[in-house]
User: What shape does this take?
Amino acid sequence: MKHNSDLDRLLRYALRYKVLIYLSWVLSALSAIIALLPFICIYLIIRSVLAGEDGEITTLGLYAVLLAIFSMALYIAALMCSHAAAFRVAANMRKDMLSHIVRLPVGTIDKFGSGRLRKIVNDSSAATETYLAHQLPDRAGAMATPAALIMMLLWFDWRLGLLSLLPVALGFLIMMRMTGKKMQEKMTQYQDALADMSNQAVEYVRGIPVVKTFGQTIHTFKLFKGSIDRYEKWVTAYTRELMKPMVIYTGAINSSFAFIVAGAFLLSFRTITPEIILNVIFYVIITPVISITLTKIMFKSEEAMIVHDALMRVDSVMDEKPLGSAYNSLTPSGSSVEIEHVTFSYDGKKDALCDVSLEIGSGSLAAFVGPSGSGKTTLASLIARFFDPQSGVIRIGGVDIRDIPKQRLMQYVSFVFQDSHLIKGTIRENVKLARPDASDEEVMEALRKAECMDIMEKLPDGLDTELGTGAVFLSGGERQRIAIARTILKDSPVIILDEATAFADPDNEVKVQKAFSAMLQGRTVIMIAHRLSSITDADKIFVISDGSIQEEGNFNELIGNNGMFRSMWNDYMSSVRWKVGKGA
Assistant: This one.
């Protein structure tokens, strides 16, 4: 996808605040030019001192102070304008990214990783905020300063002016070499290393309970340690590579004084005049401004690279394609599920599902079973349209799900995950996610059907109890029952259960199963099950392996087939009978 320049894209996010960005550049440039005028006052003061005239010294000094204050006021005004626009740009960028992310397939979000995605949303937008609020106004001032300085240097004594600019030219050439295309590649590598560490850090923190349980150290998590080691190696190599050119650059831009003294000696022909002394003193005072300005420009170039890299990372998210809108606006008639010749791949190389076809009747209970990685969850996710298949058709109630508007489809399908997440908020807010207009009575009825009344009895504020950081925490089984209450309130005709009792303890599992009984009556239910005993009453069982359906039928039919399901059942029953015991 082709993108406009970085600045054009940032200005697009500014909307009506764009004028403030332009105004900040103008004010900053004026501030930089006016900041040079006190040096002219200093020149005139030195000339008066050398001439033995002190009548204008006080007045000139006052002018210098007033000009410096005026310059500072303009710069503050420039920053106020740039900050107002920068905050708006960062906010709009975050809104655009989050709006786009919520429309992406679930698998696409998993591909990025939570740590990396969080870093892109937060850090990339923050980088553009700093760039617009500080770097661009400062760059406008840094560009205005050399232009005005060159005019001043050549106006007072063009010979000394040219001499003072020679080391500046050398420093500028070195700076261009350090901030070129190669530097941009290095900046990308640097941000990649930081993103890798961030992602691995999130995974490491999640695994801390395991580390503590088994008494391991950080070295147990080799990926995290490896990311730190790679970052250290890269930074060391990069620092050594830039050390020599940086030394030469620093020496060059700070050598103007030596050139001026040598030039003054040659120009005077051993005859020192007050005019030469005046010009030398003035040039010695003003030439450090050049080195400061060049250094500012160099660091502004580095910031521009950081912003370019940040926008490239934003593009990596924004270029991901969301699911297409409904081709038509149709309503399913019933809750049957039909899948015809569906093929799906996550990476475009290896098929996760290959030419899958099946039918599930309205109001029936179907189960997907098979080895881990066989494609069970992928198939269920396609039914809920978390993704679109590369080929084939999926119908609910006789209607292609691509012809059902997203909101209507979500009213027809509920998905209960293995580990149901609750938002940071009240019990009421969590349950009403399914139906925001539900009354408190309807919420409580859903909680009752989901076997949550024992949870509600111990909560201090009932429906108003806050969940999350600094508030009340629930166990995995309790969270699952709250999630089931949410699904009951939604009252959708099709329900998909992805091993929904996987994280429940025995007591919670019994209550979850009771909640299921209340939830599943009269609905089409698709269960992804590892505990084969839970699906013996299923109307139809589909055995999936390597992305294809190997067998289908009810429990008795599959047991009688002596096929893959029979083998899985025998293994399952052996595991059930297995007991922990001491050897003789």
Notes: The mean pLDDT is 79.
